[in-house]
Amino acid sequence: MASISEHESDGVREHLRELGLRPTRQRVALARLLTAGGHRHLSAEDVYAEARQAGIRLAYTTVYNILHQFTAAGLLREVVVESGRTWFDTNTGPHLHVLDEDSGRLQDFAIDPKSLPLLKDLNLGDDVEIADVEVVVRVRRRSADK
Amino acid sequence: MASISEHESDGVREHLRELGLRPTRQRVALARLLTAGGHRHLSAEDVYAEARQAGIRLAYTTVYNILHQFTAAGLLREVVVESGRTWFDTNTGPHLHVLDEDSGRLQDFAIDPKSLPLLKDLNLGDDVEIADVEVVVRVRRRSADK
DNA sequence: GTAACTGCAAAACTTTTGCAACCAG
DNA sequence: CTGGTTGCAAAAGTTTTGCAGTTAC
To answer: Is B118 within 8 Å of A119 when comparing Cβ atoms?
Structure first.
């Protein structure tokens, strides 16, 4: 539903405007960068580095600002699996995460966590709604102790 | 399987020794503190504050050391739901977590994430094993915008 | 013109590290 | 004794804040 995949100059700007975000140079550039190619998991640092490498001039602070704005707007999804490191997932669709503890790599799996039968048993009460379900499966290579 | 619930002085010390941890003053004190009362979610800071309040003299660094050692030994479980904050869960049994985004509170629910049917569909390969499954359900109060 | 946005530097936090002093077995 | 532990201070790393300057409309 919320994806920026246009290649024309105007598509991205329009889309941002629809989300209530002014299409500034930095936001347009990051939106393009984040939607080029397939789905990825990026840290703020990754995004900053890629942006600079792509010739986009912008501040670290702005990267954080924009990533949070994009997350709030539904363009990204925040994933936290280790303290002190936030991943921004360009895949906002239903899926779960598999963390390879050996390599630290995070991988997507196409299963909808929101459809878990167990959620029906939760009995949370009428006044709360489920905003999100995050499933992280931690895996290790067998017998490889180090 | 790994729980320190003895009230006698020797039970805790013995248990720690069985886990390969020397029963130092700090470790014994924290082990007692963490197993008093029901299951809880504590940050390192929480543990430090409680310990000091209980008259236990120990350093912040030592709290981290011991919490990690206890986690490795299976006495605690680390839970990360927000960047820059690690919770230590005294409940090491199978359960999932419900995060109240309004209050930031984390609550346990007694369902075994490892028994999720979806895990059978994962097809991870023969060389990897599932070390842990973490399920966080984020909830919000309905319509209460602030 | 004006509110929204960006950039810079510094601050705020949590967690880790290095190393000397200390303690359990 | 001797290696495992602790404590302190400092470092490391990520994310946030305050505010002046800039930009979109």
So the answer is: no
Structure tokens at A77: 């999804």
Domain that holds residue A15: 6-88
Distance B145 CA to C1 C1' (A): 33
From the list B47, B50, B10, B49, the residue with the least C-alpha distance to B28 is B10
Pair A81, A62 in one domain: yes
Give the integer Cα–Cα distance in Å for B135 and B146.
Answer: 26
pTM for the full predicted model: 0.88
Helix H or strand E encompassing A2: none
> What count of CB pairs under 8 Å joins A to B?
107
Q: What is the pLDDT along chain A (146 residues), one digit of tens a residue?
A: 444 444 445 689 999 999 999 999 999 999 999 999 889 999 999 999 999 999 999 999 999 999 999 999 999 999 999 888 899 999 999 899 998 877 777 889 888 888 777 777 777 878 888 888 999 998 888 764 43
- Is the pLDDT score of B82 beyond 70? yes
Instruction: For chain A, say whether B122 makes contact (Cβ under 8 Å).
Output: yes
> Å from B57 (CA) to C20 (C1')?
19
Please state, in angstroms and rounded to a whole number, the distance separating the CA atoms of residues A143 and B12: 31
Q: Do B54 and B106 share a domain, yes or no?
A: no
- Residue B82 shares a structural domain with residue B112: no
Chain D bases closer than 7 angstroms to a protein Cβ: 4-9, 13-18, 23-25
Q: Are residues B83 and B135 in the same domain?
A: no
Nucleotide nearest to B44 (CA to C1'): C14
Contacts of B140 in chain A (CB under 8 A): 128-129, 131
